Amino acid sequence: MSNANENQGLAKVxxxxxxxxxxxxxxxxxxxxxxxxxxxxxxxxxxxxxANFVNHPHFVHSYQMFxxxxxxxxxxxxxARYKARWLVTAIFIPLFLAVCLAFSVYFSIxxxxxxxxxxxxxxxxxxxxxxVKQSFGMALFDAxxxxxxxxxxxxxxxxxxxxxSWIAALMISASVFAGxxxxxxxxxxxxLFDGYWTAAAAAVAAISAAWTLFVLWRQIQSWRKSGIVIxxxxxxGMIGYLIGIYLWTLLAWLDYKFILVIPFFHSLQYLVIVSKxxxxxxxxxxxxxxxxxADVLNYARAIIIGAVAFWVVPGLLDYLDGRGxxxxxxxxxxxxxxxxxxxxIHHYFIDSVIWKKENPxxxxxxxx
Length: 368
Hints:
15 helices, mainly alpha
């Protein structure tokens, strides 16, 4: 019995670390040390290298999971609305993105980067939305896996706090990160928010954070009164939620070094859930004996596809100098920027389809 409790405790610790807890350790280390420009460059290159094994595969896995849904729902008359949502995300969203980015690349090649800046600004707005939504999903996922559920009011508070924090983070970032670049394309200057509006948004976010912490405390007390011990509570998901909302989104600007590692931990968080999903799928479809080999093959495939999508194709297009414009010498990698923006934004919409209760594969593979 003690071994079972120890194993369960170890699993809880690992889930907490992988769902975001490990990033707290890195954040604390970064608060204690200072890095010069050369060391920051080395850190950036190191995270870019690790992206090949964590960040890029997490995009590939989302596409794989997305297209697995269609055979399950195409003949199901009960899922008409979900089917329509899937089709919009599979056809309309990528087509719209491709057209917008193609025009943006064309104008950029001819010296006008404003359309690409609009696309980049859209990406900057949506990335915060994606982060807080995934953070909210961590809280719900761990509760469902633990079979210890949030009250309807607690879920509502967590969701609204996510949106409030996202809006506040967007307004703060618009001033803090002004003048930044993405593969040589400058972020647009958003002169929409003066200091008073940003301060007001931060104040609302602080009030929302305080109320959220109070609701979390009340929820924990409610679970305890129901006889649920700490070890059984979905604390890993709760911690993942708080870290994703605050350390990775709202307060990310406090440490410029930490910003470089946030996408890694965000993707690692995602891959934890994906690995559980794939284990369930492989166990049902292939059998227990083939789970490991199937996981290794799937991960290797994701690394290769990610390398082609994020490096080989855009790198080749930029190397060809984009119709005579030498992007390599100017420091602008316009095709790389366009393809990365496309994959990121499309991924955000894909996730809004995958992680829904209407998805029949979630119950079948992740929670069975």
